[in-house]
Amino acid sequence: MTRIDDVARAAGVSTATVSRALRGLPMVSETTRRRVLEAATRLGYSASPSASRLAGGRTGGVAVVVPRITRWFFSTVVEAAEQSLHEAGYDVLLFNLGGSEQARLKLLHTGALRQRADAVMLISMPLLAEDFAAVSQLELPGVTVSSGTAVPGWPSVRIDDVGAARKAMEHLIGLGHTRIARICGESSDELAFTTHVDRRRGYLEALLHAGITPDPALEVEGSLDLAGGAAATGELLARGVAFTAIFATCDEAAMGALTALRRHGLRVPEDVSLAGIDDHDLAPAIGLTTVAQPAAEQGRRAVQTLLSPDAQGDVLLPTHLTVRESTAAPARTLDG
Amino acid sequence: MTRIDDVARAAGVSTATVSRALRGLPMVSETTRRRVLEAATRLGYSASPSASRLAGGRTGGVAVVVPRITRWFFSTVVEAAEQSLHEAGYDVLLFNLGGSEQARLKLLHTGALRQRADAVMLISMPLLAEDFAAVSQLELPGVTVSSGTAVPGWPSVRIDDVGAARKAMEHLIGLGHTRIARICGESSDELAFTTHVDRRRGYLEALLHAGITPDPALEVEGSLDLAGGAAATGELLARGVAFTAIFATCDEAAMGALTALRRHGLRVPEDVSLAGIDDHDLAPAIGLTTVAQPAAEQGRRAVQTLLSPDAQGDVLLPTHLTVRESTAAPARTLDG
DNA sequence: CTGAAAGCGCTTACAG
DNA sequence: CTGAAAGCGCTTACAG
């Protein structure tokens, strides 16, 4: 390992100058900088991150926190964020909560993050009242992605969840559906996490706007994944309530619904229309109608926002309806 | 920020003793250790990672390198590995190559990794001859996951790719198929990356074992994702060659095939049977027959292997055929 | 624009 | 079992 002293000696300057020249600081003459760079290259030198961090007080890392890296939206956001962060010279520390409340608490309520990262990116992170205090005690810059709740002082990047849900619903209503079920998403507002609440609001608003009375029997909560979607759909069918379409809070839940419907011998869209939100990679493969949201773009914008100190406030990205084969006019309208 | 001196003062011992007590080193009396722990807890102390790293020479991080975190297999391996690593007290540094050759080279051929991580986990990482030298110059312990090629001195965790492909093929052949296409996977052996080569070998072996002469016109290369599967299937159809089944190198390619078949008005399995490898989360949703591989288990075992210095050699995990609705006997056997 | 020196907060021989 | 002191390899006021 060549150290900064080796480079300093080779270039005939002090270590302070090497440090400045290599980091591109302004107060170095061009000739000196060239000499230093040449020596550093020749010796294959790169500064020890550990030493830089200790001396400089910056860790050079950004913590990226996701609920489940295995879900489409999160992996897509992380991929984009990772690339942007590495391009900007940061290490990416991955924290995958895996649905564990314990992991969430440990991450937020210990000093672990502060000493490991210069900044934090919270993706779809539900926060309780006491979590806000913990987050602000981190004394770290941060950004939230796809979380309706703003952390004070942190910018946020997201879509309009109410609007996205309305787009899906208006499409279904436009096809003639009136009995539209809604599946998945914990809509309790205990957690300061408005995504699900907002999507539910969009569902209800669209119905009311069309003069359709919402029927609580058509709403089934559930986790936002395949299993949750399948279970919620199973529950819906078990209730024996009439419906001709399902609006799923996300595409993975919609895919779970597809599995459950198939299992019950129901065809999509002949017997039931199905729409989601996301535009998951695999949505085209199953012909799923959905409201597309720009996941990668949210990751990139979050990093941009995080790294430009002037950026503040909310970034709201657009969504758009993508019609595929999973939605059609109802064959027979079953008014319960 | 409370520092080690503060704890030392509070406990009435030296910083050396604090350091030893907190890290659980053996040469500390129980009473002293208790006193130190109590003081540390009371003051909310946790050691500065940067300082520990510089002084101790260990970074406390493990680099996890994947081609594309958005693909099912990789995100699943990473999720499991991340959990195991955090439980063991390591930071997880994520490197997502994103298919960029440049990213791969930069990662392997600069000292970047060595100074940032104590160990490396390479997941499905193709290595060229010159890469091996670079990897061993890292002078870091490591493990490879799902890469047929062993890095000298590094253990590996994987499945039997030849066997997995044979299981899928034997199922199709057992149903009566003889014209079986194979899609996706760069089978050139330029890269020391045997996964695709092995799966192709399984394809060929199964055919030969059943007395079927392989037809090169039935093989189409392509990337291992939706787009690749769709493109390869499009190419296959464009060739106008007769076939009754498709064996896809992975489930995502199979899903791409499904899209392309649907687009061409072909039904699965009535017109074409379709089988993959993986048992992707969404495979049940589309009724895909596949050979399941334990992705999370590979992530966990890789970490285990990495952290136990005695562990060596290859870990070979089992696969099993999972039959769903995408395969059936051919309606009419088209012998080209 | 450049350098000498202190300091970042730990860990680790070394000595006892 | 414990402590004093050196050292890990940088960065940063401070002085010039």
From TrEMBL, chains A, B:
Give the domain of life.
Bacteria
GO molecular function, one example? DNA binding
What are the UniProt keywords, alphabetically? Answer: DNA-binding, Transcription, Transcription regulation
- Domain spans labelled HTH lacI-type: 2-56
The name this protein carries in UniProt is DNA-binding LacI/PurR family transcriptional regulator
| Protein's organism | Catenuloplanes nepalensis
The major lineage groups are:
Bacteria, Bacillati, Actinomycetota, Actinomycetes, Micromonosporales
